[in-house]
Specification:
The complex is a heterodimer of chains A (299) and B (315). Helices cover 41% and strands 17% of the residues of chain A. Chain A has twelve helices and nine strands. In chain A, strands 1, 2, 3, 4, 5, 6, 7 and 8 form an eight-stranded mixed sheet that branches. In chain A, helix 7 links the parallel strand 5 and strand 6. In chain A, helix 8 packs across helix 9 (200-207). Chain A starts with 15 loop residues before the first helix and ends in a 16-residue tail after the last strand. Chain B contains twelve helices and twelve strands. With 315 residues, chain B is α/β, with parallel strands linked by helices. Chain B starts with a helix and ends in a 9-residue tail after the last helix. In chain B, a hairpin with a 2-residue loop joins strand 5 (95-96) and strand 6 (99-100). The chains are: A alpha/beta (299), B alpha/beta (315). The interface between A and B is large, with 61 and 68 residues.
Chain lengths: 299, 315
C-alpha cells in the first residue's frame, strides 16, 4: 500500500465541487467506522459536566497500536434518524466543552490525542449562541494549542470552518484525498461573495479547499490517498489512514517521550512554530519571518 | 463591502436602520447634523465628537474607526505603530463576482485609508504601558486574514517579551473568505500565541465592539483574561440572519447584544465608552503589582492594624 501518491493535476482528478460531494457522501466512513476498524477497548466518555452531552462530537479512550489514546471526532449519522440525533455532525457548545475536558484528561495521563474532523460546521442556533458557541470553540483552540501531549488531526470528510478547527490545532494535520477543509461552506461563500448560493461549484474551485491545495500551502502535512473514493472501499481507506496516523504518532513520540518534561516543552515549541508560520503576506522590508516575504516598492 | 454590511444589517431595538453611505465616509464634515440611528435625534457633529461618538440622548454608541479608538484611549502622543509594512497577498488568486481580491484590496485601501484591518502598536493608557491591537471595521468588515493574524501574533509576542499587558479591541465579521484556509488558520495562530502569553503571566484584556462575529469571537477575542463589551454591541458566532434562515425561528428580543451576553455569563462587564479609559487604567493597575508574599506582607500588616476593632486585643 502506498502511503502517499503524487497529486494529479486538477484536470485529471475530480473537480473541487465533485470532491465536496464525495466528502459529504452519505456512505462515506464516519468517525465510528474508523474507531471500529483501527482501535480496540473503545470506551466512550460523555458530557461536558455543565449542560449536556453532544452526540455530534464524540470522545473516549481506546487502544491504538498498543497504547491508550484519546479519540475525539465529529460523528455524522448513517441514516436520517441518526443524523437527526447527531445533528448532522454539527457540534454545540457542550460538544466543544466536552472535547476540551477530554483533551485535559488526556494530558493528565499522557495519552496522545487523535481527532477525526468531519463536520459541516459548528451549529448556528439560538441555544448555541446563548451557551457561548464562539467561546466554547475559542477555549477548545486554546487548550489544544497548549496541550502537553502529541496530537494528530485527520480531516476524514468535511472540514467545516471554526467548528472543524476547534479540534484541529494539532502537531500533525492529515487529510484524506477527497476530504475538504474550508473557511466557510462553498454555498455560504457563494451566497455572500457572489450573492448566489447556486454558484457554489465555482466558489469551491476558487476557495482552494482540496487536500492537494492545502498540502501545497503547507497547512496540511500529508494527504492520504483514496485510490477509489472512501465510500467505495471504506476498509482500505481506513487502514491507509491508520498506517499514516501510526507513523506520525510514532515520529512525535520518538522525539517527545512522554516522561521527559523538556521534550514536552519542545513539543509545544514545535507546535507554536508550526502555526506561527501559516499565512501569506508580504513586507516592504524583506527577510522577516514570513511564509511569503518579498519586497514591494515603498509607497 | 455591501455583502458584509448586508450580513450585519440591523433591525429592531438594537439594530437601527441606517443607510450604509452615512457611515462609509470616514471624514464627517465638521458642521453637520447627524441623525442617531437608534433614537433619530439630530446631533450636532461637534457635540457627537465631544461625547466620544455616543448619542447624548439615547447613549447609542456609534461605530469608531481604529484610529479614533486609539486616539480616545492612548495617552496623547504615546502610540507608536508597529508592522505597518506587513501587507496582504492574494494567495488563492481569488476572484468573486466583484472581481479579483487583489484589486479589491487596493480599492479598500484607497477608500478606507488603511492598508489592512488591524492596527497594532505600543502605547500608554493613564501612563501604564500596553500593547494595543485594534481592528478597523471599515476595512473589509475587519475580517481576519493573514496580515491581521501575523500583526496580532507579533504584537502578542512583543507583549510577552516586554511583560506588557495586551489590550485588544475587536469588531469584525470573522475570518476573511478571500484568503480561504489561510484565514481560518489565523484563529489557531493567534490563540497559540495567546497560550504562550498566558504562560508568561501577562494579562490580556479584550474589548468587543459592534459588531463582532465568527472567527474573531471564536478565537483570540473571547479567551482573554478580562472580556469587556461596549453597550448595545452585537456579538456572536453565527450572524443573526443565518440563524434565522436555518432555524426558521424568531430571534428573541435583544439577541446577541452585549447585554444578552452579560446575562448569559459570556463576558465580564459592559463598559460605556466614556468610562473605558478609566476602567482599563484600573485593571492595568490591578495587574501591575508584583504578587509576592514579601511585597504584600507590610501592607497587609498595616491593614490589619488599622482595621482592628476597638476594645479587642488591647486595653
Amino acid at each position: 500500500m502506498t502511503d502517499r501518491v503524487p497529486h494529479a493535476e486538477p484536470s485529471a482528478g475530480p473537480t473541487a465541487w465533485e470532491r465536496v460531494k464525495l466528502a459529504r457522501h452519505g456512505d462515506r466512513p464516519h468517525a465510528f467506522d474508523y474507531l471500529q476498524e483501527l482501535t480496540t477497548d473503545w470506551v466512550e466518555l460523555h458530557g461536558d459536566r455543565a449542560f449536556g452531552d453532544d452526540r455530534a462530537l464524540i470522545g473516549g479512550l481506546a487502544t491504538f497500536a498498543g497504547q491508550t489514546i484519546m479519540v475525539l471526532g465529529h460523528q455524522k449519522g448513517n441514516d436520517t434518524k441518526e443524523n437527526l440525533a447527531r445533528n448532522f455532525g454539527m457540534a454545540r457548545p457542550e460538544g466543544y466543552r466536552k472535547a476540551e475536558r477530554l483533551m485535559r484528561h488526556a494530558e493528565k495521563f499522557g495519552f496522545p490525542v487523535l481527532t477525526l474532523i468531519d463536520t459541516p460546521g459548528a451549529e448556528p442556533g439560538i441555544g448555541s449562541e446563548e451557551r457561548g458557541q464562539a467561546n466554547a470553540i475559542a477555549e477548545s483552540l486554546l487548550t489544544m494549542a497548549d496541550l502537553g501531549v502529541p496530537t494528530v488531526a485527520v480531516v476524514i470528510g468535511e472540514g467545516g470552518s471554526g467548528g472543524a478547527l476547534a479540534i484541529g490545532v494539532a502537531d500533525r494535520i492529515l487529510m484524506l484525498e477527497n476530504a475538504i477543509y474550508a473557511v466557510a461552506s462553498p454555498e455560504a461563500c457563494a451566497a455572500i461573495l457572489w450573492k448566489d448560493a447556486g454558484r457554489a461549484a465555482e466558489a469551491a474551485a476558487t476557495m482552494r479547499i482540496t487536500a492537494a491545495d492545502l498540502e501545497q500551502f503547507g497547512i496540511v502535512d500529508e494527504v492520504i490517498a483514496e485510490v477509489v473514493p472512501a465510500h467505495v472501499r471504506p476498509k482500505d481507506t481506513i487502514r491507509a489512514t491508520g498506517i499514516a496516523i501510526a507513523r506520525h504518532l510514532r515520529a512525535l513520540q520518538d522525539v517527545h517521550p512522554r516522561d521527559d518534561l523538556s521534550a514536552i516543552e519542545r513539543l509545544r515549541a514545535a507546535r507554536y512554530e508550526r502555526f506561527r508560520r501559516i499565512g501569506a503576506w508580504r513586507e516592504t522590508v524583506p527577510g522577516a519571518n514570513g511564509y511569503v516575504a518579498d519586497a514591494i516598492s515603498p509607497r | 463591502m455591501p455583502a458584509m454590511r448586508d450580513f450585519f444589517h440591523r433591525r429592531g431595538k438594537f439594530r437601527p436602520e441606517r443607510a450604509d453611505d452615512e457611515r462609509a465616509d470616514p471624514q464627517i464634515p465638521e458642521d453637520l447634523w447627524i441623525k442617531c440611528p437608534r433614537c433619530a435625534e439630530l446631533i450636532y457633529s461637534r457635540e457627537l465628537e465631544r461625547n466620544d461618538q455616543v448619542c447624548p440622548k439615547c447613549t447609542y454608541h456609534f461605530r469608531l474607526r481604529a484610529r479614533e479608538r486609539i486616539a480616545q484611549l492612548a495617552d496623547p502622543g504615546s502610540f507608536s505603530e508597529w508592522d505597518t509594512n506587513v501587507r496582504p497577498e492574494d494567495p488563492l488568486d481569488f476572484v468573486d463576482s466583484a472581481g479579483p481580491y487583489d484589486r479589491k484590496l487596493e480599492q479598500t485601501e484607497a477608500k478606507s485609508g488603511e492598508p489592512e484591518a488591524l492596527i497594532v502598536g505600543g502605547a500608554t493608557i493613564a501612563s501604564a504601558p500596553v500593547v494595543l491591537a485594534v481592528s478597523d471595521f471599515e476595512f473589509l468588515g475587519a475580517s481576519m486574514g493573514s496580515v491581521y493574524g501575523e500583526k496580532l501574533m507579533r504584537a502578542i509576542e512583543r507583549a510577552g517579551e516586554r511583560q506588557v499587558p495586551l489590550v485588544t479591541i475587536s469588531s469584525s465579521g470573522g475570518a476573511r473568505m478571500h484568503e480561504g484556509l489561510f484565514a481560518l488558520m489565523q484563529m489557531a495562530k493567534t490563540v497559540t500565541a495567546l497560550a504562550r502569553l498566558g504562560r508568561a503571566g501577562v494579562p490580556h484584556i479584550s474589548l468587543l465592539a459592534d459588531p463582532c462575529y465568527g472567527g474573531v469571537t471564536a478565537s483570540y477575542a473571547t479567551v482573554a483574561d478580562v472580556v469587556l463589551a461596549e453597550p448595545g454591541a452585537l456579538i456572536g458566532f453565527a450572524g443573526p440572519r443565518v440563524i434565522e434562515q436555518i432555524t426558521r425561528q424568531k430571534l428573541p428580543e435583544g439577541f446577541q447584544t452585549a447585554e444578552f451576553l452579560l446575562e448569559h455569563g459570556m463576558i465580564d462587564a459592559i463598559v460605556p465608552r466614556a468610562e473605558l479609559a478609566a476602567t482599563l487604567a484600573t485593571l492595568l493597575r490591578l495587574y501591575s503589582r508584583p504578587n509576592s508574599a514579601a511585597n504584600a506582607a507590610p501592607a497587609l500588616d498595616m491593614a490589619v492594624r488599622n482595621t482592628q476593632p476597638a476594645g479587642l486585643g488591647r486595653d
